[in-house]
Amino acid sequence: MKLTSDLIRQRFRERGLKNTPQRAAIYKALAETTGHPSPEDLHQQVSRIHPMLSPNTVYYTLAVLREAGLVREVHAGHHRARFDANLSPHHHLICLGCEAIIDLTDETLNHLSPQTGVPGDFEVTGHQVEFRGYCGHCRRKVRRMPSRKHSVVHPISH
User: Fold this and answer.
1) HSE of 90, CA atoms in CB hemisphere, 13 A
2) d(CA 74, CA 92)
3) pLDDT value, residue 154
4) CA separation for the pair 46, 38 (Å, rounded)
């Protein structure tokens, strides 16, 4: 979704956040992608516009945005943090090959609730479903690889 400067300013103001050019650029880059970028990915992208932007500023900004409820960290078992500005109810498909995280919207999954096994004093406030497997690109790549009995697919770039 394309974000205007006015909408970013409004969202920051509603949450008591200072609107700096770097903070707005980081949030805009994250909100306009479905790719669930890492802080390193965001730094690489935003530093093209703000060359003096430090990696520490990106990490700090993501923490501030997360605390303000504007973004969430996606814990998908990767070796680095990934972030999502899509706060609508959705779930994820996670590629075990290239580590892509793909949004999945399914109303049935939004209404799941545990029927048993939850201690009586535990209050469930939300959930997220993750399906793990291989995207089409990685499946095609695996088919082209020589057959190995116990081969492991390592992360690749598309």
Assistant:
1) 15
2) 9
3) 46
4) 12
What is the CATH classification number for the domain harbouring 132? Answer: 3.30.1490.190
158 assigned to some structural domain: no
Closest by CA to 139, choosing from 106, 93, 104, is 93
Question: 22 is in which domain, residue-wise?
Answer: 5-74
Give, in order, the Cα–Cα distances in Å from 53 to each of 42, 46, 133, 152: 11, 8, 35, 37
pTM of the model as a whole: 0.77
Please tell me the distance from the alpha carbon of residue 79 to that of residue 100, in angstroms, as a whole number: 13
Biggest alpha carbon–alpha carbon distance for the chain: 57
- In the three-class reduction of DSSP (H, G, I as helix; E, B as strand; rest coil), residue 83 is classed as strand
Low-confidence stretches of the chain (pLDDT beneath 50) = 149-158
Domain membership flag for residue 154: no
Model confidence pLDDT, tens digit, residues 8-39: 999 999 999 999 999 999 999 999 998 899 99
CA 30 to CA 86: how far, in whole Å?
Answer: 9
Q: Are 58 and 39 in contact (CB under 8 A)?
A: yes
27 CB-near residues (< 8 Å, 6+ apart)? 3, 8, 11, 12, 61, 65, 70, 71, 85
Same domain (yes/no): 103, 140? yes
Provide the residue type at 24 as one letter.
A
